[in-house]
Amino acid sequence: MAAYGLYTHIQSNRRRSIVLLVWLFALVYVMVYAGALAAEALSYEASLQFLMRKAWSDFLYAAPWATLGAALWIVIAYYFHQSMIDAITGGREVTRQEEPRLYNLLENLCISRGITMPRLKVMESDALNAFASGMNEKQYAVTVTTGLLAALDDKEIEAVLGHELTHIRNGDVRMMVIAVIIAGAVGFFSELLFRLWFNTGLRMRRSRSSDDGRGRGGNMIAIVIAIGLVVVAWILSVMIRFALSRSREFLADAGSVELTKNPDAMISALRKIEGRGELEGATSAVMEMCVDNPREGFADLFATHPSVDKRIEALIKFAGGHDPGPLALEPASGGEQQSGGPWGEPAGSSGEQVAAPAPGSAAGQPFLPQQPPIELGGRTPDSGTPGKPGPWGRRD
Fold it and tell me: Which residues are tagged catalytic?
């Protein structure tokens, strides 16, 4: 069933998590059979029918061990995936004393909605990005880069934290971790099989060739089938991540606005992050969990996130936000942070006369004419009739 709103999306994510785990075991079994078929083809000169029967017999013998191995992989990933992510990104957990500004913003958001506060981590990087990770309430963590802390003001950081909290609340984080586990398991076994085939296969075939009436001519076909099965399993494991609905990002943006009541902060945060979120040395799996993933696939077909322009367009249309347009951020030459922030000249530094900010606008933010806000789901404050559903669904 498609997810049309926040709560149906949460239920959909729970169902998808179960389906993804089933897919993990199915793909592992496919690879076990492919390995058995290739091993028999490299061991005997025989017909294709004989080799496939022998491979099926080997598969039935190996299936319990494959099930045990896949279950062990899941257990290891469940308990240690955060440690592996921290090893890749260099994220470190921080306390209120170390990061009072960031800690207080996250704590206030959690208290306002009765959400269990996740662990807070900071990674040293000039990139502007953040991501959430974890499989349950004891493991959930939000990681923020130092570049993001330097470039964004409090309202924008609060919007980003609200985005990540919504991912946690919606179950998006758990689902993405499971998808990464699947891809990792299948990728590991694929590489293992190919190494075994090419390192020992030819020697086995020479030493065990037979002429006892089993027939000939099926070996090459069997090997081609086995390689094809492994390649298909690997492609499917990768496609599982891309098959996850990109609507999760629209819903996380909407959840951020619901938490902060400030669509402009989410929009300006996306504009600052746009094109500046590449985490050096991070794997694709980590980038897929970030606020913005600048790594795009062929013709945007394999992109894990909607474009920033589409996300901002949705916020403007359904949350009443205002778009300042693409922001050109440049590192400041001075050492101290001034009113303009660390990424640009402070207002009025060039000697030009700067108009006072309009009432209700944040200092240092571009002034845009006020427009009547539109509540999430397309309903205006003055009308009681629901409007056209947005990308995150209708809220009645």
Answer: 164
